[in-house]
Specification:
- The protein is an alpha+beta fold and 338 residues long.
- The chain has 2 domains: 168 residues, Gcn5-related N-acetyltransferase (GNAT) (Aminopeptidase, 3-Layer(aba) Sandwich); 130 residues, Aminopeptidase.
- The chain is 37% helix and 28% strand.
- It contains 12 helices and 13 strands.
- β3 and β4 form a beta hairpin.
- The longest helix is centred in the last third of the chain and has 19 residues.
- The chain is globular.
């Protein structure tokens, strides 16, 4: 019997599994009992957001103690690792504390299999162990999201709001928004297309289809809520929240000019925090890397939470230069889409 601390050059090698070789229940059980558990890594979630995915596991294909989901697709005849939309981070998931030797072995296995990685993000629970390694086979970037702990009375949560956020909330209350729950994603997507997509560039129809499928599955399985703010019978703002095992994620939102001016989303967020106060729940704002948005989220009392993202381009010339340009365009789109 192997333990996680026994991963070294003399033990069984790290194994690469295709999706067909991964049993969903076994995979999800491992994610559930891992120290890094997050909804993004569940098999059904990956099935929806990834073109296809594989995994590195250890020590065996059917009973693993460490697993690393790998979203992959083909470009120019090569398999690449990428970070899919609606999936903030993945990384390494272990049944007990992940040590430096184990993390280094998985990073080495990753570099050996993927010469090109436009973007891949590790969950915040991997941050400390990675911070002591940072192998030069990858380019490393520190990203941040913002977490708000809801395990206190609502009055304590609201006491953490900054002055400008309290003002936003008062404006939202004065606007007399009617907040409703729905399962219809058309208004959310329409608001985004009409009010946000123009500042991004081309957003594929497939991205909206993926959002709809993901949201519908989350709602059906009790892992999601779709909220809208209405006034005069018209929807002016919406948000999709997903949650699983102590973590809620502000996955997607949109609003028109009226919804933004009258702070409909601030009101909906505050309502969620009130309804879920005194629960062992961490609310992840899933922050894009923009200072103005980070400032807005910290105004609710959220704290910066750091995680690593990697890039790698070991392709031969001229493929390396072509992919540098494509990578820049991809990162720009991802930063704006959320």
């Amino acid at each position: 019997m192997f333990s996680i601390n026994h991963l070294n050059m003399t033990t069984p090698p790290i194994i690469l599994l295709s999706r067909k070789q991964i049993h969903p229940q076994a995979w999800d059980d491992h994610i559930l009992h891992s120290r890094q558990r997050v909804i993004y890594a569940l098999s059904w979630y990956l099935d929806i957001v990834c073109e296809r995915w594989e995994a590195l596991v250890w020590p065996s294909a059917d009973r693993f103690l460490i697993a690393m989901p790998l979203p992959v697709r083909s470009k120019l005849g090569r398999k690449i690792l990428y970070q899919p939309l609606f999936c903030q981070y993945l990384g390494i998931f272990s049944s007990s504390e992940l040590g430096a030797a184990q993390c280094a072995a998985f990073l080495e296995a990753l570099a050996a299999r993927f010469p090109y990685i436009p973007s891949y993000a590790f969950n915040p629970d991997n941050f400390d162990v990675i911070n002591g390694l940072l192998p030069k086979s990858f380019q490393w970037q520190v990203l941040q999201t913002h977490w708000l702990h809801l395990d206190k009375p609502y009055e304590g949560i609201r006491a953490g709001y900054r002055k400008d956020r309290r003002k936003n909330l008062r404006q939202g209350l004065n606007a007399a928004w009617d907040v409703i729950e729905s399962s219809d994603f058309e208004p959310l997507i329409r608001l985004f297309k009409e009010n946000h997509a123009g500042g991004i560039g081309k957003v594929s129809a497939g991205a909206y289809q993926t959002l709809g499928r993901l949201g519908e599955h989350c709602i059906r399985s009790g892992a999601g809520r779709l909220l809208y703010a209405r006034r005069g019978g018209l929807v002016h703002a919406g948000m999709l929240l997903v949650y699983w095992r102590g973590r809620a994620v502000y996955l997607f939102n949109s609003a028109d000019r009226i919804g933004r001016k009258a702070n409909a989303r601030a009101l909906m967020l505050d309502s969620y925090f009130r309804d879920h106060s005194k629960q062992a729940l961490v609310f992840d704002f899933e922050s894009p890397q923009k200072k103005s948005i980070a400032t807005y989220y910290t105004g609710f009392g959220a704290r910066s939470t750091w995680f690593y993202s990697i890039r790698r381009n070991a392709l031969p010339f001229p493929l390396r230069q072509i992919q540098h340009l494509r990578q820049w365009l991809l990162i720009r789109t991802r930063q704006c889409l959320f």
